[in-house]
């Protein structure tokens, strides 16, 4: 009797185990696809998100930077988006930064319109765990509010070389004006500062800076300002413009006035923007850097920063395809490449 009871209990237990196993198998199978989907969804949510905010929309200069970011995102698999205000005012980027904080992006890469006006909102972003890198320009004096700054080249040296080259074209004498972007633009203000320092050398004693005009990096306003300079100073010898919008406007104003043999326009601009002016002899050339390279290097740094495989500390090196090791310099500054000087002899070699 006892043996029968034991046998019966054993059978019941085996049946229960089988049912339980079947139940687990039955419930697990339908969930495999959702779990796989959930895993993909989780991957999508965990996908590194990088946003780039240039100073404003409608400026061709920034297009290669955006393309560089896109290429890096395709190679590394992070999500990349671009957004920007319509105007380059000191505070115009603030609502765009706030929107990205709400989106929960991992990295905000920004070409700042101001060194001071953005600090509060950048601090807010960092408090939320968002990495901040400045691109093409920096928030000088407020470097602690970003991880690193990826810029085209050594801008101080570029400004010096640009001023020296401009002085050579003017034969070291005459009145000249500067056509800048906004009154608060860090890059342009630093360039102007260095130009003034270079002019302290006695060899430039016969050159006179008569005015600094601001076109807000808006094509029409910049053109209006350039034309006003030509009218205001009939004996003007040159216009120096440390902005890609300004140099195009200066070249156009010089050509419209028919004074290309009298007034030298020189500065920072892209080869594609200035190619026609250079070939026609309206301007002698210009200086810049590889803008595509800025975005590409910034994309690689941003991705590795989030992965914990990069840091904005002086001496740190990271690899970028085609360009090799890129080193972080003082204050977390990263030079994407060397300065670029182009004129009629080599302008066709570049396409940006």
TrEMBL record:
Under InterPro entries, the record lists: Bact_Solute-Bind_Prot2, Peripla_BP_I, SBP_2_dom
| Entry annotated with the keyword Translocase | no
Q: Which domain of life is it from?
A: Bacteria
GO CC entries: outer membrane-bounded periplasmic space
Alphabetic keyword roster: Signal
Q: Which GO terms describe its molecular function?
A: carbohydrate binding
**Localization in the cell:** Cell envelope
- Where's the Periplasmic binding protein domain? 50-309
Q: Where is the signal peptide?
A: 1-21
Entries under Pfam families matching the protein: Peripla_BP_4
Q: Per the annotation, which location comes first and is thus the protein's main one?
A: other
Q: What is this protein called?
A: Autoinducer 2-binding protein LsrB
